[in-house]
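Propose amino acids for all 121 sites.
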Protein backbone atom coordinates (compact mmCIF):
# COMPACT_ATOMS: atom_id res chain seq x y z
CA UNK A 1 0.00 0.00 0.00
CA UNK A 2 1.43 3.37 -1.03
CA UNK A 3 1.16 6.78 0.60
CA UNK A 4 -1.45 7.90 -1.91
CA UNK A 5 -3.65 4.91 -1.12
CA UNK A 6 -3.44 5.63 2.61
CA UNK A 7 -4.18 9.33 2.00
CA UNK A 8 -7.21 8.43 -0.15
CA UNK A 9 -8.59 6.11 2.55
CA UNK A 10 -8.07 8.80 5.21
CA UNK A 11 -9.74 11.35 2.94
CA UNK A 12 -12.75 9.06 2.56
CA UNK A 13 -12.97 8.63 6.34
CA UNK A 14 -12.78 12.42 6.79
CA UNK A 15 -15.54 12.93 4.21
CA UNK A 16 -17.77 10.41 5.98
CA UNK A 17 -17.14 12.01 9.39
CA UNK A 18 -17.88 15.46 7.95
CA UNK A 19 -21.11 14.25 6.40
CA UNK A 20 -22.13 12.53 9.63
CA UNK A 21 -21.51 15.68 11.65
CA UNK A 22 -23.50 17.71 9.12
CA UNK A 23 -26.36 15.24 9.50
CA UNK A 24 -26.16 15.49 13.29
CA UNK A 25 -26.31 19.29 13.03
CA UNK A 26 -29.36 19.11 10.78
CA UNK A 27 -31.17 16.70 13.11
CA UNK A 28 -30.31 18.92 16.08
CA UNK A 29 -31.74 22.00 14.40
CA UNK A 30 -35.00 20.19 13.71
CA UNK A 31 -35.35 18.33 17.03
CA UNK A 32 -34.06 20.65 19.75
CA UNK A 33 -36.65 22.74 21.62
CA UNK A 34 -35.28 26.26 21.99
CA UNK A 35 -33.23 28.81 20.07
CA UNK A 36 -30.00 28.51 22.05
CA UNK A 37 -29.93 24.73 21.76
CA UNK A 38 -30.57 24.95 18.03
CA UNK A 39 -27.80 27.51 17.64
CA UNK A 40 -25.41 25.19 19.48
CA UNK A 41 -26.42 22.30 17.23
CA UNK A 42 -25.98 24.47 14.16
CA UNK A 43 -22.48 25.68 14.98
CA UNK A 44 -20.49 23.04 16.84
CA UNK A 45 -20.91 19.92 14.68
CA UNK A 46 -21.26 21.96 11.51
CA UNK A 47 -17.88 23.65 11.93
CA UNK A 48 -16.16 20.42 12.95
CA UNK A 49 -17.80 18.66 10.00
CA UNK A 50 -16.54 21.35 7.64
CA UNK A 51 -13.04 20.97 9.05
CA UNK A 52 -13.17 17.21 8.44
CA UNK A 53 -14.28 17.83 4.84
CA UNK A 54 -11.47 20.36 4.35
CA UNK A 55 -8.90 17.91 5.73
CA UNK A 56 -10.32 15.24 3.43
CA UNK A 57 -9.99 17.58 0.46
CA UNK A 58 -6.41 18.39 1.41
CA UNK A 59 -5.55 14.70 1.66
CA UNK A 60 -7.22 13.95 -1.65
CA UNK A 61 -5.95 16.88 -3.74
CA UNK A 62 -2.39 17.14 -2.31
CA UNK A 63 -1.67 20.47 -4.01
CA UNK A 64 0.18 22.97 -1.78
CA UNK A 65 -1.73 25.97 -3.15
CA UNK A 66 -5.06 24.28 -2.62
CA UNK A 67 -4.10 23.15 0.88
CA UNK A 68 -3.19 26.76 1.76
CA UNK A 69 -6.58 27.91 0.55
CA UNK A 70 -8.32 25.17 2.55
CA UNK A 71 -6.43 26.23 5.68
CA UNK A 72 -7.59 29.82 5.18
CA UNK A 73 -11.18 28.67 4.73
CA UNK A 74 -10.99 26.67 7.96
CA UNK A 75 -9.44 29.55 9.89
CA UNK A 76 -12.01 32.08 8.70
CA UNK A 77 -14.82 29.66 9.51
CA UNK A 78 -13.52 29.15 13.04
CA UNK A 79 -13.07 32.91 13.54
CA UNK A 80 -16.42 34.08 12.19
CA UNK A 81 -18.84 31.38 13.38
CA UNK A 82 -18.56 32.10 17.15
CA UNK A 83 -18.94 35.85 16.57
CA UNK A 84 -21.97 35.38 14.33
CA UNK A 85 -23.50 32.94 16.81
CA UNK A 86 -22.98 35.41 19.66
CA UNK A 87 -24.58 38.25 17.70
CA UNK A 88 -27.63 36.16 16.81
CA UNK A 89 -28.06 35.10 20.44
CA UNK A 90 -27.76 38.68 21.70
CA UNK A 91 -30.21 39.96 19.10
CA UNK A 92 -32.64 37.18 20.02
CA UNK A 93 -32.33 38.06 23.70
CA UNK A 94 -32.97 41.73 23.02
CA UNK A 95 -35.96 40.91 20.83
CA UNK A 96 -37.47 38.82 23.62
CA UNK A 97 -37.34 35.53 21.71
CA UNK A 98 -35.54 33.56 24.44
CA UNK A 99 -37.03 31.78 27.42
CA UNK A 100 -35.05 33.56 30.13
CA UNK A 101 -36.34 31.29 32.90
CA UNK A 102 -34.49 28.36 31.34
CA UNK A 103 -31.08 30.02 31.50
CA UNK A 104 -28.67 28.90 34.21
CA UNK A 105 -26.55 32.05 33.90
CA UNK A 106 -27.94 35.26 32.44
CA UNK A 107 -25.13 37.74 31.85
CA UNK A 108 -27.46 40.11 30.00
CA UNK A 109 -29.98 40.58 32.82
CA UNK A 110 -28.37 43.88 33.80
CA UNK A 111 -28.46 45.14 30.22
CA UNK A 112 -30.18 48.52 30.02
CA UNK A 113 -32.06 47.56 26.86
CA UNK A 114 -35.57 46.46 27.80
CA UNK A 115 -36.85 45.51 24.33
CA UNK A 116 -40.47 44.97 23.41
CA UNK A 117 -42.56 42.82 25.68
CA UNK A 118 -44.26 39.71 24.33
CA UNK A 119 -47.68 41.28 23.82
CA UNK A 120 -46.57 44.54 22.19
CA UNK A 121 -45.93 45.00 18.48
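Proposal:
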Amino acid sequence: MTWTDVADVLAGVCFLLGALLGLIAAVGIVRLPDLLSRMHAATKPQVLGLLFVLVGLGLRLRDPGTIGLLVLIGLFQMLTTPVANHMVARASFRAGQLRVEGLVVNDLEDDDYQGPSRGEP
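Residues 64-94 form the longest helix (31 residues). The CA atoms of residues 92 and 98 lie 6 Å apart.
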